[in-house]
Amino acid sequence: MNFIKTSEHLDVSARPLFRHRVLNSLVAGIAATAILLSASVTVNAETEGLEKEDLKFGFIKLTDMAPLAIAYEKGYFEDEGLYVTIEAQANWKVLLDGVIDGKLDGAHMLAGQPLGATIGFGTKADIITAFSMDLNGNAITVSNKIWQQMKEHVPHENGKPVHPIKADYLKPVVEKYKDDGKPFKMGMVFPVSTHNYELRYWLAAGDIHPGYYAPLSGDTSGTIDADALLSVTPPPQMPATMEAGTIYGYCVGEPWNQQAVFKGIGVPVITDYEIWKDNPEKVFGVSKEWAEKHPNTHKAVVKALIRAAMWLDEDGLKNRKEASKILSRPEYVGADYEVIANSMTGTFEYEKGDKRSVPDFNVFFRYNATYPYYSDAVWYLSQMRRWGQIAEYKSDDWYKDMAKKVYRPDIYAAAAKELIAEGKADAKDFPNFDKESGFRAPQTEFIDEVTFDGTKPNAYLESFKIGLKGKDVVK
After folding, report:
1. Which residue in 10, 58, 268, 457 could disulfide with 89, CB within 3.0 to 4.6 Å?
2. Distance CA 402, CA 414 (A)
């Protein structure tokens, strides 16, 4: 399949249906930078029930949007009878607003976004997800100046830092800034982003308080009692913002950590894989109203995304170089191939020249990565409560009920079963849908060695030294 960048490259003479739709799209004012997907499809028995064929999806320029790109590039959307336009969005808020107001049919989302919207933190809207897009994929980077100050506290072996690098080694640096009356500033991408919670988790594990939110009193800055001040910066702007000295470090997805290494302006000190092994990262989100109105279309989208995720993890990452080349295009991530491939192909470069094997830095299908576990949702909700975004005590049942309201493994299972019946997927690569509860076994591989049991969120919160628990309220 040939990739079409702009309308001037379209060969519409051989595709009447495609020509008709493209012209309609142009009249409607679709941006020339949008990715237009071929809709020359033969509608078969499986696609006749689609409620809507013409779809527009949003994404942010990060490598973990890859399932959307690959579902287009490999024709998986076409196979499901879908005509899809994919458009990069300016930031996470614009993207969420687009899904809420119907400008977008769905989008690559932060895992916390459907949950945050549904509980009413920030924008209130009912958003659901039936597809988890990946595991891992983030890192925390600090400026060269901060790294030099941290480095003297970091254990070394054979001349190289011993990983994982804990926030314990950053604590003396933060304390010196406080003693000098200077705020220690770091960036994350959105208040309900994985990056916010991972950065907070890492800092708190090193006894650095990342601050509380207090929505009951109208304080949504997240800086109450903070040792380190965290603020929002869009992912592609992270390296430049740090280089300018506005922030001293950040947590973000790829390729914006490796970009700091290539530009020589910073050092990624830890990956999220080392903070929480195989943590859920992004999801594909749609409005609840849209899902109820388009159940067959939604299932078809999930089928295409599952196939894309399978391709991305196929046969020991054999397709990752090709995927990196696709993602390097300006329509997708728009970073140099070498920068993207640095993490996408199973390696990760920390300090310049210190490249290490991290085969699971990006996981798209293995380890049931695409299955929307209720326990994943509970973890995000627990962190919202820990830092005050959920202002008051909630029962364990509340967490479970909210998880089941937003995460929809039933839709995922229906899509997967169709792929298995069609011979496009193997049942052994999925959870046992007849027995699956939606809750992972208790997870132990966190940097602070605290065990997470998704069925007991309040007990989990009680285990932390720093953070709200029980009846605590920030005013």
Report:
1. 58
2. 21
Helix 374-386 to helix 396-406 angle (10° resolution) is 120
Residue 475 pLDDT grade (very low, low, confident, very high; cuts 50, 70, 90):
confident
First to last CA, the chain: 57
- pLDDT number for residue 387: 98
Mean pLDDT, rounded, for 175-184 = 97
Confidence at residue 192, expressed as pLDDT on a 0 to 100 scale: 96
Q: Is the pLDDT of residue 20 over 90?
A: no
Supply the pLDDT for residue 342: 92
Residue 45 has pLDDT above 50, yes or no: no
Amino acid making up residue 263: K
* Cβ neighbours of 449 (radius 10 Å): 8
Q: Which pLDDT belongs to residue 390?
A: 98
Q: Checking DSSP bridges between strand 184-188 and strand 355-357, what pairing results, if any?
A: unpaired
Q: What are 253's strand-pairing partners?
A: 138
Q: Where are the beta strands (DSSP E) in 313-400?
A: 347-349, 355-357, 362-363
Omega of the bond leading into 255 within 30 degrees of 0 (cis): yes
Number of helices (H), then strands (E), in the chain: 19, 19
Q: 231 φ, ψ to 5°?
A: -135, 165
Beta strands per DSSP E along 288-369 = 347-349, 355-357, 362-363
Average pLDDT over the chain, rounded to an integer: 91
E strand intervals along 261-387: 266-271, 282-287, 347-349, 355-357, 362-363
Fold of 138-279+444-462: D-Maltodextrin-Binding Protein; domain 2 (3.40.190)
Domains 7-136+281-333+367-372+408-429 and 138-279+444-462 alike in fold:
yes
pLDDT one-digit tens code per residue, 379-404:
999 999 999 999 999 999 999 999 99
Give the pLDDT of residue 48: 62
Nearest CA-CA partner of 312 in 339, 344, 356 = 344
7-136+281-333+367-372+408-429 belongs to CATH 3.40.190.10 = yes
Q: At what angle do helices 396-406 and 112-119 cross, to 10 degrees?
A: 110
The domains of the chain are located at: 7-136+281-333+367-372+408-429, 138-279+444-462
Sign of CA dihedral 31, 35, 41, 47: negative
